[in-house]
Amino acid sequence: MVLMPPAYIKPYVKRGKNDVVDATAICEAMSRPDMRFVPIKSADQQAVLMLHKTRELLVKQRTMAVNALRGHLAEFGIVAAKGIGRVDELLALSKADAALPPIAGAAVACMAQHLEGLNLSIETVDEEIAKAHRQNPTSRLLDEIPGVGTLIASVTSRHGLV
Predict the structure, then answer these.
(1) pLDDT at residue 24, as a whole number
(2) What is the pLDDT of residue 161?
(3) How far apart are CA 46 and CA 158, in angstroms?
């Protein structure tokens, strides 16, 4: 069994999209001598890639929440330097500001709790990725390359890029 990326099949689809047209395009693509195939991933590889995608989603959600918090507080004149490391400073400024209405303070507390939950979830996923990294010899070898860390080594070895 072989797998072909859908992007490689697309040029052979003549018109429309239905099963017959797709099957014809696949047959046409298979007959080409320069067709490239992708490796089939094991269940373990798929599981680790799922961890990486979950981490990516959580980091995006955390960034969105921090940006929303920063924007909301800026409307009240509460600002801090940008960066994920400055969120605690921003939260401290909001708690110290007596002019911040109690309702806004409740919203800030809710956002802070949400951010804490996201941070804990990211840490949990990072631990699972590190555990999978330690169990994979290819990933450990990649980690020895300068500039390549646990995350890059783990995802590279799971994608079958080496």
Answers:
(1) 87
(2) 56
(3) 8
Position 91: which residue type?
L
Segment-wise mean pLDDT, segments of 10 residues, the chain, 162 residues: 80 82 85 82 88 97 97 95 93 94 96 98 96 90 89 79 56
How far apart are alpha carbons 85 and 69 in whole angstroms? 14
Per-residue three-class SS string for the chain: CCECCHHHHHHHCCCCCCHHHHHHHHHHHHCCCCCCCECCCCHHHHHHHHHHHHHHHHHHHHHHHHHHHHHHHHCCCCCCCCCHHHHHHHHHHHHHCCCCCHHHHHHHHHHHHHHHHHHHHHHHHHHHHHHHHHHCHHHHHHHCCCCCCHHHHHHHHHCCCC
pLDDT of residue 3: 83
The alpha carbon torsion through 7, 12, 18, 20 (nearest 10 deg) reads -130
